[in-house]
Design a protein that fits this description.
Blueprint: H1 2-13, H2 15-36, H3 48-69, H4 73-82, H5 92-106, H6 108-120, H7 122-128, H8 134-137, H9 148-155, H10 172-208, H11 210-256, H12 262-285, H13 292-304
Helix pairs in contact: 2-6, 3-5, 3-6, 3-7, 4-5, 5-11, 6-10, 7-10, 10-11, 11-12
Length: about 350
Amino acid sequence: MDKFRMIFQFLQSNQESFMNGICGIMALASAQMYSAFDFNCPCLPGYNAAYSAGILLAPPLVLFLLGLVMNNNVSMLAEEWKRPPGRRAKDPAVLRYMFCSMAQRALIAPVVWVAVTLLDGKCFLCAFCTAVPVAALGNGSLAPGLTPQELARLLARVPCPEIYDGDWLLAREVAVRYLRCISQALGWSFVLLTTLLAFVVRSVRPCFTQVAFLKSKYWSHYIDIERKLFDETCTEHAKAFAKVCIQQFFEAMNQDLELGHAHGVLATATAAPAATDNAGEEREKLHGIMDQGSVNRLLTSWHECKPPLRLGQEEPLMGNGWAGGGPRPPRKEVATYFSKV
């Protein structure tokens, strides 16, 4: 049990590295999922594009949502967004930083899926096989003999070699090579643009807004740490509250029981001081909050009007660091004497 606790504490202390590892694993999993996925184009004019769009867009959306769900900061962002302002105003810059930080990690797996799909070419081939230029790649002189519906039905069968019978008009291998070439070009362009965008976001943006970036990053970390410490304090308070309630219950039951034997009386008298000391220690952990109504009011107050981020300062600080108009500490005068030897 101690080993699992140590692992959990390590993951909490290294949450950013842990989430980066999770996103990397999801990216590799998305590539493996596509490799294991059996792509079957319907080879029908009205369904090819819809099927290909679903394969290209639906799994990345699912992977993006999974990346957000697996991030612990989602609940923190939602809580910070929906909480009443109370005595602490909400900073939109911090909320934007938190969302962008989560979105950047969650987008890794969808980007890998889209890139692998375009580089493979099957999805693009299925979607745009009806748009192959027959006049440039095939026997254009025979195309006018077909109606537009018949030509679309014939070209829609290009991804399916077992049912394609239009080699007399357009060689299937020519159409496949043509569409896969375009798909791979788009795939490498997508990878290049994504890499450049990631470089700009990670490197260039903080250089222009360094102060705002540092402020948003600091208060984002503060909100995360504050929530964790509040949860730990609530856990300690609940544990102490439960212990005191149980001790009071057993003490009340002990007073109601009739102790007829002297040995029982002696044992009770011996154990009473220890129980009293333990109860006193647990009462100190309650900070004076010792009933259900007070606990409910405390939790409500924490949600509706969080304390301001001012550590005991009632007035704004001046340039020298002291509160304006407030009492200043006494100045110490130091006299230095020099003697000639």
